[in-house]
Each structure stands twice: as C-alpha cells, then as structure tokens.
C-alpha cells in the first residue's frame, strides 16, 4: 500500500514563476515510487504571476485540499496596486529609488508580518489539517518555503500530532538577499532567527537545494540535511529554429541588484568596435526587469539591440531557451547568493544552448556548470575574460558552430530527483 505524504505549499498552479515547479514535478512522479501525494494549498492566494498552462500538468488523480487565506497584499493593493505587485514579486527597488509607499510597505511587511505576509494562514491550517491527518492516517508531512510561514504549520503539526515532518527550503531564510531590505528592527530580526532555529532543530529531516545552504544550515541544526536540487523535465515542445540574430537571452526576473555592469559594458564595446556584431546582436529580456537594470543596460547598449519581451508562460520560456543562441544567467554579487541555484538553470542545461553566467565566485551554479560542461561562469570583474569569450561565441555563431556538449545531466531529471525524495519519505 502506498505511503501517504501531505505536501503543504503556497505556490501551486495557476501560480507562475519558478516557485511552483519544484513540487508540481515531485507530485507528478511520487506515485511511481509508491508514495501517494496529497497537496494542501490556499484557496484564494494573491499570486504576483499567473501561468494557466501549468494547470494541465497537475495529475488528475492527486487530491488537492484548499482552505481560504487572508493576505495583506490584497489590502495593500487598495492603496497602491503597483507597489504591492512589485514587492510581492520580489523586485525591490534600490532604497534611494523607493517611493514613500514602498518604504512603508517594506517596513510593515518586515516588522509586523513575521516571518512573512502569509502568517495568518498558519492557525486555521493547523486546525483543519490536524483533523484531516488523523482521519486519513497521514504518515509524513512536508512543508516547502518560502514563504517560510508554511514551515510554522509543520512545526505545530509535529508538536501536536508527532507526525514525521520534512522541511523543504527552496531558498535560505535569514540569509536570503531580500531579507536585509525589509527594514527589520532588532526585535524583528531576532524573531526571524528564533523561528528559523525552531524549524531547523525540530524537523525530522531538512531538504535544501544547494550545497552552500546545507553548509549554512549545518551550523544551525543537528538534524539530517539532504540536498535535492531543482531539475528539468522532458516536455513536448513545438519545433524550434535558432534565432537568425546573435541572441543572448535572459529568462526570468532581473532584480535591481542582479545587474552586472561589466557585462553591459563589454557588450557595448563589442557593438562599437565590430559592425558585424552590432548588426547581429540582440539582448532578449524575457520576464520582469527592474527599472534600475534597464537604465544601466541602456547606458551601453543601443535600443535597436535590445528586445524586451516581458513575462511569458512556462512553455513559451522553454521554447525561447531553445531558440536563443546564448542563454544568460545572473545572480547578485554577494556571499549570501552563492547558495542560490535558480530552477531555470537545469532547463537551460538541456536546452542545447550555451550558458553565460555572471555571479559571485565559488557559487553552486559555477560548480554545476563546470561539472556538466554546459556553460561558462564569470565574476563581476571579469571584463577581459567576458569580452574574449563573447567574441569567440560570435565567431562560432558566424561559422554555424555554436553548440554545447553536456555531460552527466541525467542526475538532474525530475524523476531521478523524485526517487531520492521518495527514499526519504
């Protein structure tokens, strides 16, 4: 008889963005490993992005439980819909460019909604799920964050029912980049640290998506910690042809600090120095892009060489990955972001398109790219190296020789990763 696992998550279709992909795919493959997933999600969530195509990927046989949630973002939209949407999507402007409303919302969010704006869902969820778990003999509860308030549901269910509890961290808690921007008081910061410690020391098992996060959490907890990265899934896609232009595509959100001026500068120089490069090159920006980043790009790159696409659904994103000549991945240049592995990395790796990544040295992304031979990684000061490599890629493009030769990608398939999860359950 299959083991039952109750998965508690905030992000679920029709939510768009990378946060929904991880557990949607686990749910898809868990039955193949004799685990019956039951998914608990909010009934009326305030998602910053929607992708209705993901609804088609929910297995028809899976049980979905829903309960209402009260979120302050809906009230905030009454005062400023744009500010609310911007902050809830994670694109936080630089402090000197924040409006008074944005500053107020960040302060309230950081100091009055601890650990996050979905905390009001904890108490009613514990009440509802306690009865469901007892009635249906659930053996394992899994919580996934962010939002990290989801882990508080697991914490209370563990305390009252003694169920086996696995806490999955798609991102770190107190060391994630935006945490420092929440204008936290000393008291609020201490409350976050206390909650984080409670969760890490109480969960029976902790899941993380990177080796760097595992190292961080190992200093805060004696509980077992396992790395299960995000991954890729095979999906039928329309036939695609490579762009005729020499396209460099960034797919996903470009936050204010995800802004490698060295790259924009190098591209600007190549455009000025080489007419062939200027005529062929296109920087494709697919997804939400902050005004700060756009302003910096436009300092160096002419408007004719920029294509702003905006947000697209998941299938369109996968097609764009295969059409582009090069794929761009950018992370904030910070010690805290070494542990961040964007879910799109693994989709990039199977797109048969070379990857150029810019971020902090010695990151998990750097190690994965090197190990799989799927791209090149550069620091924020690597001007000469970037210029040489981009010129080399352009020559390969002109000779129809721009390609990749990946190795060892099977370990990152969603099914292989789900097998690893099922063994823990």
UniProtKB/TrEMBL annotation:
GO terms for molecular function: glycosyltransferase activity. Residues 108-233 form the Glycosyltransferase subfamily 4-like N-terminal domain. It comes from the Bacteria. Pfam families: Glyco_transf_4. InterPro entries: Glyco_trans_4-like_N. Gene3D superfamilies: Glycogen Phosphorylase B. This is Glycosyltransferase. It comes from Gelidibacter salicanalis.
